[in-house]
Design goal:
The termini are far apart. This protein folds into two domains: about 325 residues, Bira Bifunctional Protein, Domain 2 (BirA Bifunctional Protein, domain 2); about 80 residues, 3-Layer(aba) Sandwich (Rossmann fold). It is elongated and about 90 Å long. The chain is an alpha+beta fold.
């Protein structure tokens, strides 16, 4: 055994949640659950340890290199899930003949990735997953994005503070084909271009070259990212482009859902995961100071990849790290700690039973009560109550108990009113 003192810090990249941190986490989680339920999504969950083979079905991607994997005592290779979508695909495939499609499911999953940490990126995070499986139309993308927009509003995010950037991988495929880029190079081009802005263009060109993409093809791929508008993309793709038609339909549906003012076409949105097949999207703060708030897209081939029947699907992953950073900057670090409830204290042991009965009565009425557990002096009680999370406070002394009446004090306005004991 080492004699070195034990560190009080969590493992690198992992997090502890003190009460003030939980206030923010609960604000985000509550918005996720409420809006998903309002939109008709059903909750599900799964084991945090997954079969490594399932996760490696997407071999060659960055995520595969970031998996926390290990062998159990029976020498089976297992892993901590880096994302939820492969597990969802496994669960859907297991009951594919019994489920009433389309299914709309959501979960809040803890995920782990061993990666280089930067602002907004940890090695452990919670992620809200919204998925619609079994629906071919763009209505599925619109429904998921509308739900995400409602969740941001429920958290207190102003509509003007973010934008949802959308593209279509099928459109990129059409344009690359028109430029003479062979289909076998498309996946490598997508994966490389997804790193634009994160690493220099020369490095991206090297990544494409390592995958066998010729230099002239790489140059053509970079040219595509100069496209600024959907109309420009439509001019290049042609009037008959199915990918353009789907994007135009999404913008039309966004008008009906009420989030079109936050939807922007962006040719640079590609998403690094190879299983995306169609429309893809990412939300960023308007000033682009932070990483993506959420991202996702259509993945019509994933169920077949894990052994299920081919089934259309759309999904969104929305992590808790970046959105809390954005909200704290916009609203202030203390915004999540809304004061609520009543602190109840007493001066001498003789008032304890009355304090307990008062707390029990208030709690039975649905009021949150922080009950003092031992006698305190008034100054000590109000100092603690003022630093806590309760909005009001009641302190019981001998006279209050004798008269059957105490004073309920608002800790913010300092106003008082009588309360019967």
């Amino acid at each position: 055994m080492s004699n070195q003192p034990i560190s009080f810090e969590p493992p690198r990249g992992m997090r502890d949640f003190y009460p003030e941190d939980m206030a923010w986490r609960n604000r985000v989680f509550d918005a996720w659950r409420q809006t998903a339920t309002l939109s008709g999504f059903q909750p599900y969950d799964a084991c945090v340890v997954e079969n490594l083979e399932l996760l490696q079905r997407k071999a060659g991607e960055e995520v595969s290199e970031q998996i926390y994997c290990f062998q159990d005592k029976s020498e089976r290779w297992l892993a901590l899930r880096p994302e939820m979508t492969p597990t969802l695909a496994r669960m859907i495939a297991a009951r594919q003949g019994q489920l009433p499609f389309p299914v709309k499911w959501f979960t809040i999953a803890q995920c782990f990735r061993y990666e280089r940490m930067t602002r907004g990126r940890k090695r452990e995070h919670y992620q809200w997953n919204l998925d619609i499986v079994g629906e071919e139309s763009v209505a599925a993308e619109a429904e998921i994005l509308a739900c995400a927009a409602r969740a941001l509003r429920a958290m207190g995010m102003p509509d003007a503070a973010y934008r949802i950037r959308v593209n279509n991988r099928a459109l990129l495929g059409e344009l690359l084909a028109r430029l003479g880029v062979a289909a076998e190079h498309h996946a490598a081009v997508f994966l490389a271009l997804d790193k634009r802005g994160k690493i220099p263009d020369e490095e991206i060109a090297k990544l494409m070259a390592a995958e066998g993409v010729p230099p002239e093809t790489a140059a053509k791929a970079f040219e595509l990212l100069a496209i600024q508008t959907l109309d420009q993309a439509a001019t290049l793709a042609g009037v008959e482009s199915p990918a353009i038609a789907k994007l135009r339909e999404l913008f039309t549906l966004a008008e009906q859902h009420g989030f079109a003012d936050r939807l922007v076409f962006d040719m640079a949105v590609i998403r690094g995961l190879a299983y995306y097949t169609g429309i893809v999207f990412e939300a960023f703060d308007t000033e682009r100071k932070f990483r993506a708030i959420f991202g996702g897209g259509r993945y019509d081939s994933l169920l077949a990849t894990v052994g299920g029947a081919p089934t259309p699907a759309v999904g969104l992953g929305f992590g808790d790290v970046v959105v809390v950073e954005v909200l704290q900057e916009l609203l202030g670090g203390a915004a999540a700690a809304a004061r609520d409830g009543v602190a109840v204290g007493f001066m001498f042991p003789e008032q304890r039973d009355v304090a307990i009965r008062l707390a029990a009565r208030l709690r039975s009425d649905g009021t949150r009560v922080d009950l003092g557990l031992s006698p305190q002096k008034p100054k000590q009680f109000f100092s603690r109550a003022g630093a806590g999370s309760c909005r009001s406070a009641v302190f019981l002394g001998p006279d209050d108990v004798a008269n059957g009446v105490a004073r309920l004090k608002d800790l913010e306005t300092r106003e008082e009113r009588e309360i019967q004991l």
